[in-house]
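thread: overnight batch results

M.L. [08:02]
morning all. the overnight job finished for the chain we discussed friday. pasting input first so we're all looking at the same thing
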Amino acid sequence: MNTTTNFFAVLQLPVSWWKKLVLFGLAAFFINAGVNHFVNPDFYLSIMPPAFPLHSEAVYISGFFEMLGGVCVLIPRLRKIAGWGLVALLVAIYPANIYMAITPEAFPDLPVALLYVRLAFQFMFFYWAYSVTQPAYNLADQKT
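M.L. [08:03]
and the structure it wrote out:
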């Protein structure tokens, strides 16, 4: 077997190409979003509800866990727990999206409709992260 084949065998990827795309897409999305918290923290600071404490810390911590979750969904032994961790993270950051929608004047560069569309998209992201916790994405679950 060549190195590429060994690499993919170690990842214990789902069988279908669609599920592979979902898994790699989820990983890339969260790794990119997490890195962006460190590259562009001002945006994330601006969407923090004022009543919440520790704004800077929350931005960097959530960015770290987005990157960690994105990497860990690619590790078979950690895939299920990483998926659940990303679901929990999405629930934790949802108040920032609500704040953006109910305070459009704080985001004059963004159309109000986009602020509400973000709320709806979060549910798609919830499902996306939840999907990798299922047996179809976890070959170890299928062997029993």
